[in-house]
Amino acid sequence: MAQENNLDNGEIKRTGTWLTASAHIVTTAIGSGVLSLAWAVAQLGWIGGTAALIIFSLVTLLTSFLMADCYRYPDPLHGNRNPTYMKMVKTVLGGVQYKFCGLAQYTNLIGCTIGYTLTAAISMVAMIKSNCFHKFGQQADCNISNNKFMVFFGITEIFLSQIPNLHDLSWLSILAAIMSFGYSFIGVGLSIAKIAEKGHHVKTGLTGLVVGVEVTRTEKVWNIFQAIANIAFAYTFSTVIAEIEDTLKPSPPENQVMKTASLIGITSSTILYASCGLVGYAAFGNEAPGNFLTGFGFYEPFWLVDIGNLFIIIHLVGAYQVYAQPVFSIAESWANTRWPQSKFMTKEYNARIPLVGTWRINMFKLIWRTIYVVLTTLIAMIFPFFNNIVGLIGALTFFPLTVYFPIEMYLVRSKMPKYSLEWIGIRLLVGVCLMVALIGVIASIQGIILGLKTYKPFKF
């Protein structure tokens, strides 16, 4: 972010290293996507599940390497810096591609805030169910609607959304990162304990759910596509690669350090993903729940299940803001540019809040941010299908943000000859990833449509 030579204009000295960059990657990567990995592996089986995790990690690693070389352009060692993903796309590919990149990025941000609202509510309900099952037995009727908890989560986010910007949310981001590691390790630990139980035996298979026994042939096909999309969601963190590289000090060269950090960060994340997915599958077998901490494969110790879900809730409270603040910012910047003389847009009022102090409030921000949270909450209430929503977000954003733009930027920067073997290989990779993404989108939408046939929205 700062200047240490004549190419770096800024005031804040960049001091990041491969260690801090690796930590940023792991922190960004580990999130609610891990919760669906056991279910995804159950649809694909030992062979398909393991292969999918490895392939997605290798593709992500490759495109991260390509993006690292585009941080400085046109020369990866002495070119001008591109501190953000969108700036990088605009510099290398031009304005039209830049607009498509913005559309993909903000689709991802908005989609994640919707998904986080749903996931947080599911975890709140799971805590209540966990205590109900502990008190009345595993056969007790402990069903409860998610909707009231989505409303509660939305109200919380309305208040947090009035925090001016991400710089004032650093403490919340750190807390959220710690929580994400906490519930991931709790899930893995509970899975290992379940495997070690006396008499534990679940049905697993090399190809997952058995056609004609557990699912029909059509269901098997759709489930495979949804599972691949769910795994893609876990790997959609390339959008922050440029921002992370921008924290690195200029010497040694940022692209070299970033490649080391990417290798360490993505390898570490994949190991944890594999632990959640493969160990979770070994614990639950073909009956693995869509969310392995809320699907009640675990009943005891109920207090540890509750802690895991509490960690999820705390993480998602912070993660919502990390994803929502850029959406707030771009809308507010546009409005201020469009109506610079409007007091409604610019004037701030001092409000004294007990235990917090004086809070500066702008009416446009207050209304706009509140409307945004209300809309995301309503959409989550209308489409409360965890695996399908996760899969849809993953399929929509993995291809453009993790595959297409990094590869297109690399082709432009490297001036690779058309129809060379390397060019053909890269184009084939892009084509395959596009097909996988499209199939994932279709499968996730199909799952949502099926769910809507029996689901009654807004039922409390």
TrEMBL record:
The Amino acid transporter transmembrane domain is annotated at 14-449
**What is any one of the record's Gene Ontology cellular component terms?**
plasma membrane
Q: Where in the cell is it found?
A: Cell membrane; Endomembrane system
Where are its TM segments located? 18-39, 46-68, 106-128, 149-165, 171-193, 261-282, 302-323, 366-383, 389-407, 428-452
Q: Which GO terms describe its biological process?
A: amino acid transport; auxin-activated signaling pathway
User: Membrane topology type, per the record?
Assistant: Multi-pass membrane protein
| GO terms, molecular function | symporter activity
Under Pfam families, the record lists:
Aa_trans
**InterPro entries cross-referenced by the UniProt entry:** AA_transpt_TM
Q: Report keywords, A-Z.
A: Amino-acid transport, Auxin signaling pathway, Cell membrane, Membrane, Symport, Transmembrane, Transmembrane helix, Transport
What this chain does, per the entry, is described as: Carrier protein involved in proton-driven auxin influx. Mediates the formation of auxin gradient from developing leaves (site of auxin biosynthesis) to tips by contributing to the loading of auxin in vascular tissues and facilitating acropetal (base to tip) auxin transport within inner tissues of the root apex, and basipetal (tip to base) auxin transport within outer tissues of the root apex. May be involved in lateral roots and nodules formation.
| UniProt family annotation | Belongs to the amino acid/polyamine transporter 2 family. Amino acid/auxin permease (AAAP) (TC 2.A.18.1) subfamily.
Q: What is this protein's name?
A: Amino acid transporter transmembrane domain-containing protein
Source organism per entry reads Pisum sativum
At the highest ranks, the source species' classification is: Eukaryota, Viridiplantae, Streptophyta, Embryophyta, Tracheophyta
